[in-house]
Amino acid sequence: MKISVHGIRTFAYHGCMPEEGLVGTWFRTDIEAEYDFSRSIQTDSLEDTLDYSLLAAICQEEMAKRSKLIETVAGRILERVLSIPGVRKCALQVIKEHPPIDGQVDAVSVSLQGENPLVPKPENT
């Protein structure tokens, strides 16, 4: 079972060039987390599921911390999502819109995935 949040938009100041720390640019993040939400299907309770607003908040908090590399930001987001109780796997993509490189480039991105070995696999897989 997976929950996904697509297109978390943040304005941030990541990049190796000094001007990127001053001017900033838009980023989009997609997060997919594997979580057993079979209980919430039965209870219809937010307390029994992975609240996707938590995933968005983690992304926004980590994007607010300036880094030279989007790989670093993606790694921080991944680590925090995997620390949420019950999250077994996570895959994410951080997309930097209109990077300051030669030529017309719409975006660059970094994709990461990881798993928490302490969370058991669901029995039905």
Quick structural gist:
With 125 residues, the protein is of the alpha+beta class.
Sheet with most strands: strand arrangement? 1-2-3-4
Poorly predicted ranges: none
| CATH fold-level topology | GTP Cyclohydrolase I, domain 2
N to C succession of SSEs:
EHEHHHEE
Within CATH, the superfamily carries the name: GTP cyclohydrolase I, C-terminal domain/NADPH-dependent 7-cyano-7-deazaguanine reductase, N-terminal domain
Architecture overview:
The chain is an alpha+beta fold and 125 residues long. The protein has a single domain (2-115), classed as GTP Cyclohydrolase I, domain 2 (2-Layer Sandwich), CATH 3.30.1130. It is 28% helix and 34% strand. The protein has four helices and four strands; from the N terminus they run βαβαααββ. The protein has a four-stranded antiparallel beta sheet with strand order 1-2-3-4. α3 packs antiparallel against α4. The protein is elongated. The termini are close together.
Write the layout of secondary structure elements.
Layout: E1 2-12, H1 20-23, E2 25-35, H2 38-43, H3 52-63, H4 70-82, E3 87-97, E4 107-115
Antiparallel strand pairs: 1-2, 2-3, 3-4
